[in-house]
Amino acid sequence: MAIIPSLKTACNSIFVLLCFFIAAQMKAQAISGQQLLQKAIQYHDPNNQWDTFKGTLSIEMKMPNGSNRLSEVSIDLPHQYFKLTAIKNDTKVEHIVANDQSSFSLNGKTTFTDEEIKTFSLNDARAKFMKNYYTFLYGLPMKLKDSGTIINPIVTTKTFMNKEYLVLQVKYEEGVGKDAWYFYFDPKTYAMEIYQFYHDEAKNDGEYILLTGEEVFKGMKFPKDRSWYLGLAEKLQIQ
User: Fold this and answer.
1) DSSP 55-89
2) Is the dihedral of CA 146, 133, 173, 202 positive or negative?
3) d(Cα 113, Cα 102) in Å, to the nearest integer?
4) Pairing mode, if any, of strands 68-76 and 54-62?
5) What is the pTM of this model?
6) Residue 23 to residue 78: CA distance in whole angstroms
7) R_g of the chain, CA atoms, integer Å
8) Taken in order 117, 120, 122, 125, is the CA torsion positive or negative?
9) What is the sign of the dihedral through the CA atoms of 110, 112, 116 and 121?
10) pLDDT value, residue 28
C-alpha cells in the first residue's frame, strides 16, 4: 500500500516537469531569433546608448594558477578610441588604437627592444585584436546587430544548471568571423546569462562563459562577473 502514494508523487513530479518543458518549447517557437535579440537589447540597453558609449572598464581577472591581472579598458566609440592598460607582476602594458592607428607603452616607455616587442606583443595585430575582443564581449548583446552577423531565426530551449533558457544561435559571414556562438537568455527578463562558442563545432571544442551580477552604467546593464569553464574569472566595474 505504501508504494501507491510514492508512484503518484513521482508521476506528479514528472507531469510538472513535462509541463514546464512544453511551456518553454512553446515560448521558444513563439519568438523568432531577431525578436529575442531585440528583447535582450531592450533589457541590457533600453535607451540605445551603446553606440555612443564612453567609459572605462576596470577588470580583475583571476587566473587558474592563482595569479590576478588588473586591466583598465577605455572605450570611446564616437571618437574611435580604445586603450587597454594591463598590470601584472609590476609590469604595465598599454595597447592603444585611435582612429585605426596603433601605439604602445611599456612601463611608461614608448621605445622598445625587439625582445620587449615579442614578449609583450607590442604590435598592431595584437592591439586591434584586443580592441575587437573587449568591445565585442562587453558590447553584447548589442554587438549582435553588427553587419555580417547571421541570426538563426529559430530559437531553441536548453536546460543549464537546472534552469531553462531561450537559446539564440549566431554565426558570421565569411571574412567577419568563423566561430559559432550560442547565447542563453532568461525566458522571463531576457537577460543574457550564459554564452558559448565553438571554434569547430564538429570537434565539440566549445567554451561556456557564465555571467552573474550586473553593473549598471547610464541605464545600460553589463554582466559584472564572467566565469569561464577553463577556470578564468573576470569582475567588472565601469567608470
Assistant:
1) EEEEEEEE-TTS-EEEEEEEEETTTTEEEEEEEET
2) negative
3) 17
4) antiparallel
5) 0.81
6) 43
7) 21
8) positive
9) positive
10) 53
